[in-house]
Each structure stands twice: as structure tokens, then as C-alpha cells.
Design a protein that fits this description.
The complex is a heterodimer.
Chain A: E1 19-25, E2 29-38, E3 41-50, E4 53-59, E5 64-72, E6 77-81, E7 84-86, H1 91-99, H2 104-120, E8 127-133, E9 139-140, E10 143-149, E11 166-172, H3 173-179, H4 189-200, H5 213-224, E12 229-231, H6 233-237, E13 244-248, H7 255-268, H8 270-275, E14 276-277, E15 281-283, E16 296-298, H9 301-309, E17 313-320, E18 326-332, E19 339-343, H10 347-350, E20 364-370, H11 373-383, H12 385-390, H13 392-400, E21 412-415, H14 421-439
Parallel strand pairs in A: 3-9, 4-10, 13-19, 13-20, 14-19, 15-16, 20-21
Antiparallel strand pairs in A: 1-2, 2-3, 4-7, 5-6, 5-11, 8-10, 12-21, 15-18, 17-18
Chain B: E1 5-8, H1 15-30, E2 36-40, H2 45-53, E3 60-62, E4 70-74, E5 91-96, E6 110-113, H3 119-128, H4 136-149, H5 160-173, H6 179-187, H7 194-201, E7 203-208, E8 211-220, H8 223-244, E9 249-256, E10 262-265, H9 269-279, E11 287-290, H10 296-309
Parallel strand pairs in B: 1-2, 1-4, 2-3, 4-5, 5-6, 8-9
Antiparallel strand pairs in B: 7-8, 9-10, 10-11
Helix pairs in contact in B: 1-3, 1-4, 2-6, 3-4, 3-5, 4-5, 7-8
Classes of the chains: A alpha/beta, B alpha/beta.
């Protein structure tokens, strides 16, 4: 019919002066012939035009992305898609908008917010334009991709049109990456391309945000697979820097044994010795039979206070005991460039105000050692028979001091009972090796 | 290429089915058995609540199981509930907790059917008896399933194993002790068209001696208010389900989540007669109180016995 195709190197110039003749116009599509002058020759290019659409890449801030599951008439089956819709209700609206010189991006963003609200029940507080997909030279049907985040607890009812059957679903990035590779699961190929690019761009993937030291440690531990260790990943994520390590746990959970294993590891491994230091603990309670004198020194209150004043004691806090009794806990000051490993107790969390210096806790890796109550009782009977006999109140207090109260704050939990008990020493040593590796980078 | 394995539950699975399958899929993946967890149909409202509340990933929904060579069923062991979507020959394993099951129809499956309160308990036990660490999201799902199925441990199907598993799970999930309230409140939203949808969503049919029986089950807070105001809607929806499914008997097994009270609701006179004789229940305005409270899975064997006795 005498219509020349443009050569590959010459896209038809989009010159507003080019004449367009409408060959056919329907509600959604129009077929036009564009008259273009190139090198003195008049050429005609035929193309199809459709009003543009929007697609939304919405995250929940927890690593999940929203997809909609919709029954598609043209496929006669359900399909997972990105939520979205038209920018204009008709081609006429689109054409008149263009002729009035409107800003398409603003209009597209408005449409995106509206579609989100109606189709999914969620209104993103802000949307950023991510990309625009152009279909080709002869078919003009732009899809504008926008990205944003919503709070999943703020979803409202959908406002669907007659015949629309759309369900909102959320999948992790990993899962979406798998789903878009399967054409029977996710059929809109332009969105597959947009998502593939989205996932491969460092600044749009949430994995690329600078990881806190806590998260880096968590990743290393997960990779190593230490069975008796449980990670509190949320807490670890907010631990930006690790400057000290504190073991906590009720009496008789086995803290001392584990700190001993760290002490042994540091003693035998010079690399670890350059990073960690395990200072002696100073306590103001009377010595008991079976007390660990390697770990602790027992002094009276006046001596303790004087040591604090003279800077001999670096870290200290107060532990409230039964009745009005109090004990002071402190550690000998450590070298500035080393990470102190402290054996604390629940008071460090339950009596935070008494902890000195104030900078200790925000950068502390808190390792909670856990054993169930019956195991602890058994250990008490073996270890301190004189306590049960002579001071039943204190015994009761120590047993009642349950581990559960400190769980919310801990970053790592070591299960020291039953079948885990055999692994805890090794796992703890490995944990410190991983932490040393992390800190020496 | 290794055989592709699907871990799933019955069609339109409830929270127990979803939780059990998702967690078991995780267990298998940790023991190097690649698998896909996916479901057919729609998730119950309660399941969607848990997923959204904790920002968990939704499970994949599929239309058919054709692309899978092997299937593992969790919380499902009878063919009817699979609605023809699953080829029983492909099923290699079944984990379930109901007494009426058809494991003989699954010739290639090894099955673990134990009468605890939830399939979630059986899956949790797999983790407990191994060195495998359970993810927090799976722990949340399994714990929610146990709370839901056992009606916060008040239902008579509750066993010590369910309580023990729940303790283990909540050690990881760390949910507050009043979590059950939020879960049950979400479950109880029957506003507007949700009533009909919920009835149809947890509706099971059984064929016993050429009798077709349909039982809907709904567990909500504040059942008294529901009965006081919406019985007509319920019986209308039931009548619709009865004719759609060509049923001889149909009723709703209604349970109050907070008090545990159990009501049977039906306008069909044949069903009222049947239930009166099995449970000594007396119907007034289509509603009868059932004491002691029973779950559908406990009711079915009793009705089965009655129908077989009278055949």
C-alpha cells in the first residue's frame, strides 16, 4: 500500500508538526498514519495508538511485594499481575489531554494512586516513577511503572468494577523472582521485564542497604548453622555497631561455663586475643562456697565505690535482690581498642538506669543463655546445697528470676539444656570466631 | 531432574492446612527435599488476617497440580475435600488429624494420622524432634493454627501434645498471651456478605450410605448475637448450598470462640430429625444447643454411625 518502513537507524521523528491521519478509531485503539519528511522525502508511517497505563510495584517495608491475583477473561484463567490500570478512561480523553499540553507524568501518578486505592484498598503515601515501558515503534502503548510502600495493616476494602475478581497477595522478593519466570503463573511479560530490572538494580533492592553489624553477624551465623543458637533477627538488624558483648541469663543457666569457653578460646587463639578481653568481675556480695574465683572478686561496698572513683572499674550496675538488698556488679576496666566480654545478669536489662557508662547497652551484643526451670533447679541442688539450706529466700529469689523477661532485648539466645547442651560450648566458640572475623574486616 | 514435589492441603484450605503445609515445606527444604508449597482455591479470612498482621508472605495459589509429579498432603486425607484436583496416585505422604480418613485410597502414600487438635501440632513435632530450626514466620502460623483449631485450648479435641507444641512454638513466635483474642476477632467478621461467604468457605460434604450430608462450620465470638439477628440469612444460605450440592442433609455447626458453646442451625426438617436423634438436641426456630460442644470432625463419625444403624 505504499507505506515505507523506517530504516533501523532512523526512528520516525516525533515532530508535533507531523501530520496524523486517523485511519480507524475505536474506543481504546486508533490506527493512524503519520506523515514525516525525511531528507526532502515525504514518508508515511502507520502505527497503532492506545491510551497509556500504569503499573505499581508496592512493597510492605518487610521485604514483600504486592501482586494481584486476577481472573483474566482473555486467558480464561487466574493470573498474578502487578496492580494497575488505565491513565485515561478513553482514547479521546488521552488525545485531548495531550492537545492541551498536560503533564503526563503527573496525570499518570494520579491514576496510579487511584488504581491502587480501588483495586487493592491501599493508598501509598508516596509514589516514585520507576520506568516507562514503550511497546515499539509501530504500537504506541506506554506503561508507566511506579513504586511505593504501604503499611499492610492499613488496607481498606477494594472498590472493584462489575465483573472484576481481584485478590491482593504479598510475596517475598525471592518468591516473586521465581514466579515471574513462569509464564503460566505471571503472564504480563512487560511487567516481568520491569521487575527483573527492578530486582537487579542495587538502589531499588532493599538488600543493598548498608547492613548493620548485627545483621552481618546474623548472616554469618546462619550460614555456619549453629544448632544451639537462636537469632533475634529484628534486634540484630538494629544493632549498628558491636562494641561489647554481654552474656545474660538467670542464675544456673550455664553462663559461666560458656564464658569459660570464650576465655579458653581467647587463651588459645592469639587472633581472638587481639579482639576480645574478658575482664574480671567485681561483686559486692559475700563469697559463697563453690564461687568461681577466676571470674569474680568479692569486695565490700566501700572498696567497690573507691575502685569506681579511681577508674579501676570500667562498667558497673546495680542488681536488686530480695527485700531491700542490693548488690553492685562491675568489671575491671579494659583496653580501649578491645571488645569486652562481660558476664552480666538480668539487672543489666531490668535495672538499665543503673548501668554505667550509658553508651554500654546501645552497642552491646546481648547473648541470653536459656535453660528451663527444672534444669536450673537441679543445677542449684548440685552446686549450692548450702544456699538452699541456709538462705531459702535467696534461693527462691534466684530461681524465680526467670529468663523470659530478658528475651525481648537479647540479640542471640543460646539454648543450654537437654540435647543442645553438648553443642553450646563449641557453638559459642564458633560464634566468637565469626564475630572476630567480622570486626577485623 | 528431580521429581517436582508439591506440599499442599485440601481445596480452600483453612489456617491449619496452610500453616501445616507451609511449615512442612520449610522442614523438607531444610532436609534438602526441594518442594513447592501451593494451594488450590481461596484462603480463609482468618489465614489472611495472620498473613497481613505479621507481614508474612502469601502462599502461592495454583489452578491445578498437573505440573507436579509428587504431592504431600497436610491436614487432608479424604478425596472429597480435594474436589478432583489431586490425583491420589501422586500423593506420597499424608499428615492429618481427623478420624474419618480415606488413606486406603492413596495407594502410594505413607501416612501419619494422629488424633491431636491440629495438623500443625504434628508438623511442629517434626521440628521439635530434629535439630532443624523453625523460622519465626512458620512458628507464628503453626501457633495460630493450634490456637484456632483447639479454640484456644478449650475445645474437646485439645490434647497435651497440642499444648506442648504451642509452648515450643510460642517460644519462637513470642506472641502475647491475648493474641487469641485478635485472631478470633478477625475470624468473627461476618458483616454483610461475609456471612454467606464464610458459610460456603468452610463447607464440607460427605457421602454416607447413599445419603449426602453437608456441614458448614463457623467459629466466631458472640454467637448469641448472631443467632438473635441473622438466623434467617444463615438458613437461606444453607438452603442454597443444599440445592447446589444436591444434599439430603445440611446444617451449620456454630461455635462460640470465647465460651465454647455449640449450636446446630438448620431449617431442613429431615436434618433436624437426624440431629435430634443423634445428639438429643431440640430445635427451636431452627437452632439447637449441642452439649457437649463438638467440632465437625467429631460430629461426622457420630452421624455416620446413626445412618449406618438405620440403613
Amino acid at each position: 500500500m505504499g507505506i515505507d518502513k523506517p530504516s533501523p537507524n532512523e526512528a520516525a521523528p516525533k515532530n508535533p508538526e507531523n501530520m496524523e491521519t486517523v485511519k480507524y478509531k475505536g474506543k481504546l485503539f486508533e490506527v493512524i498514519s503519520e506523515q514525516v519528511e525525511i531528507d526532502g522525502r515525504i514518508m508515511h508511517f502507520e502505527k497503532v495508538r492506545r491510551s497509556p497505563g500504569v503499573r505499581l510495584i508496592i512493597g510492605d517495608g518487610q521485604g514483600n511485594i504486592m501482586l494481584t491475583r486476577e481472573f483474566r477473561r482473555e486467558l480464561n484463567k487466574f493470573d498474578y499481575r502487578l496492580p494497575g490500570g488505565k491513565v485515561f478512561d478513553s482514547l479521546d480523553e488521552f488525545n485531548s489531554f495531550k492537545s492541551q499540553g498536560g503533564d503526563l507524568m503527573i496525570k499518570a501518578k494520579e491514576a496510579a494512586i487511584k488504581e491502587a486505592k480501588e483495586e487493592t484498598g491501599f493508598t501509598p503515601s508516596s509514589l516514585t516513577h520507576y520506568s516507562t515501558s514503550q511497546l515499539g515503534a509501530t504500537v504506541e502503548w506506554d506503561l508507566h511503572y511506579f513504586m511505593g510502600t504501604v503499611d499492610r495493616s492499613e488496607g481498606k476494602a477494594q472498590e472493584l468494577e462489575l465483573g472484576e475478581n481481584i485478590e491482593v497477595t504479598w510475596f517475598s522478593e525471592e518468591q516473586v523472582k521465581k514466579m515471574i519466570l513462569d509464564a503460566t503463573t505471571f503472564s504480563e511479560e512487560r511487567s516481568v521485564a520491569a521487575l527483573v530490572r527492578f530486582f537487579n538494580q542495587p538502589e531499588t533492592s532493599h538488600e543493598s542497604q548498608a547492613k548493620s553489624e548485627g545483621t552481618l553477624l546474623a548472616d554469618a551465623i546462619t550460614e555456619r548453622g549453629l544448632g544451639s543458637i537462636r537469632l533475634r533477627t529484628k534486634n540484630l538488624a538494629s544493632l549498628a555497631r558491636i562494641s561489647d558483648v554481654i552474656f545474660v541469663g538467670s542464675s544456673l543457666v550455664g553462663k559461666t561455663t560458656l564464658v569459660d569457653s570464650v576465655r579458653a578460646a581467647v587463651a588459645t587463639n592469639p587472633e581472638l586475643a587481639t579482639i576480645f578481653q574478658i575482664p574480671k568481675r567485681i561483686i559486692t556480695r559475700p563469697e559463697r562456697a563453690n564461687d568461681n574465683l577466676v571470674e569474680n572478686t568479692f569486695v565490700g561496698n566501700e572498696i567497690f565505690n573507691s575502685m569506681v572513683e579511681h577508674g579501676e572499674i570500667g562498667v558497673h550496675w546495680v542488681r536488686k535482690m530480695e527485700g531491700n538488698r542490693q548488690e553492685q556488679y562491675g568489671f575491671l576496666a579494659t583496653d580501649k581498642d578491645k571488645i569486652p566480654v562481660l558476664s552480666g545478669n538480668n539487672a543489666i536489662i531490668n535495672n538499665k538506669e543503673s548501668v554505667s557508662p550509658a553508651s554500654l547497652l546501645p552497642e552491646a551484643l546481648i547473648i541470653a543463655v536459656y535453660s528451663p526451670e527444672d534444669v536450673r533447679k537441679e543445677r542449684m541442688q548440685q552446686r549450692s546445697p548450702d544456699l538452699l539450706a541456709e538462705k531459702p529466700e535467696e534461693a527462691r529469689y534466684r530461681l524465680a528470676d526467670r529468663a523470659i523477661s530478658m528475651y525481648p532485648e537479647a540479640h542471640i539466645i543460646i539454648k543450654n539444656f537437654g540435647r543442645y547442651q553438648d553443642e553450646t560450648r563449641d557453638d559459642t566458640a564458633q560464634l566468637f570466631a565469626l564475630l572476630a572475623k567480622l570486626k577485623s574486616k | 531432574m528431580p521429581a517436582s514435589l508439591l506440599v499442599t492441603s485440601y481445596v480452600n484450605p483453612d489456617l491449619d492446612g496452610v500453616a501445616g503445609a507451609v511449615a512442612y515445606g520449610e522442614f523438607l527444604a531444610q532436609t534438602n527435599q526441594e518442594n513447592t508449597v501451593a494451594f488450590i482455591g481461596e484462603l480463609h479470612q482468618e489465614t489472611k488476617f495472620v498473613l497481613n498482621y505479621f507481614s508474612l508472605q502469601h502462599p502461592l495459589i495454583i489452578d491445578n497440580t498437573d505440573s507436579f509429579d509428587q504431592i504431600i498432603l497436610v491436614d487432608s486425607s479424604d478425596l472429597a475435600a480435594l474436589e478432583g484436583h489431586i490425583n491420589p496416585a501422586k500423593v506420597i505422604e499424608i499428615i492429618d488429624h481427623r478420624s474419618l480418613h480415606e488413606t486406603d485410597k492413596f495407594s502410594n502414600a505413607k501416612s501419619q494420622i494422629e488424633l491431636v487438635g491440629a495438623a500443625a501440632t504434628l508438623v511442629a513435632e517434626r521440628f521439635m524432634n530434629s535439630h532443624i530450626v523453625l523460622s519465626k514466620s512458620s512458628a507464628i502460623l503453626l501457633y495460630s493454627a493450634i490456637i484456632s483449631n483447639t479454640l484456644n485450648f478449650k475445645g474437646s479435641i485439645t490434647t497435651e501434645r497440642d499444648r506442648f507444641a504451642a509452648t515450643y512454638l510460642n517460644n519462637i513466635a513470642e506472641l502475647p498471651s491475648d493474641y487469641w483474642r485478635q485472631l478470633f476477632t478477625a475470624k468473627s467478621d461476618l458483616s454483610g456478605s461475609k456471612l454467606k461467604a464464610t458459610l460456603a468457605g468452610d463447607f464440607a460434604t460427605f457421602s454416607i450410605n447413599n445419603n449426602r450430608l453437608g456441614i458448614a462450620q463457623v467459629e466466631v465470638m458472640n454467637v448469641k448475637q448472631l443467632i438473635a439477628s441473622r438466623v434467617a440469612e444463615i438458613t437461606e444460605a444453607l438452603t442454597g448450598l443444599q440445592s447446589d450440592n444436591s444434599l439430603d442433609f445440611i446444617f451449620l455447626n456454630l461455635l462460640d470462640l470465647e465460651t465454647g458453646t455449640n449450636y446446630l442451625v438448620t431449617s431442613d426438617l429431615n436434618t433436624q430429625a437426624l440431629l435430634s436423634s443423634v445428639f438429643s438436641a431440640s430445635f427451636a426456630n431452627c437452632v439447637a444447643l449441642n452439649n457437649p460442644p463438638l467440632m465437625r470432625k467429631q460430629i461426622v463419625p457420630l452421624i455416620k454411625a446413626e445412618l449406618e444403624l438405620n440403613s
